[in-house]
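To fix ideas, we now present one chain and its tokenised fold:
***
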Amino acid sequence: MEAALDNSPGSVSKSILYEQPLNERVRTFLRLESLFKQAAHHVKRGTEWDSRATLSCILEMLTVFGNTNLKSEVLKELERHASNLKRLEKNPGIDHRQLTSLLESITERMDKLHRINGQIAGELKNSEFLTSIRQRGAIPGGTCDFDLPSYHYWLQQPARKRTDDLFRWLDTFDVIGQAIQLIIRLTRDSAELKPAIAESGVYQQTLDANLPFQLIRIALPATAPYYAELSGGRHRFTARFLEFSILEDRARQTSQDVKFELACCAI
């Protein structure tokens, strides 16, 4: 989910975007994108708590990278995108300059990934300091000062020292992070948001199984009193619009017809 501004002329309205990945690969990429954004926000700030937040993101990244061979997954996805884009080269209606630029970007990121020897962030996985924090982090409140005196000592170092360490650790994800960002951008840009209506607060759509749908995106005005809850897979998806309330135990599906914008991204 993300907020977005409507940049059309004369418009200052704000909308909220809700996304539903349709396969495990895109789901993993979106989770990593969220962690990259959080880390980028906190690493620029010098407080102890921002350093904690940044390091927490780094440790979560390591967990994600430990669960799958992401380097191979990202390379496969880049190769698939390159193959699909190359089919458009003979299409006279295509902006060939932009197409060439995209193919060059994909090739550049693939070359950089191929030059990485061994596992992504392998040196971080072998760090005794980071491993101790990662293990204690599985315990609620387990990273208190008395639990990890070495972590407490590091957090008391000058902000410049902590920031340098954090940037060095984040740099180990830079190459694959750029590749993932490119894949996500290509996926999102593959379909435009178009008007749709959810009758009585629910919308269902069957997807063409012959097309490689990757992602569903829904935009709602930020002023709407409901949010979108999406579910589905590669064959169909459902969007339910629920009335938001912190006070009620369970969210209720609105009975109103909901106007929204929808993009079914296939590339």
Q: What stands out?
A: Residues 3-12 have pLDDT under 50 and may be disordered.
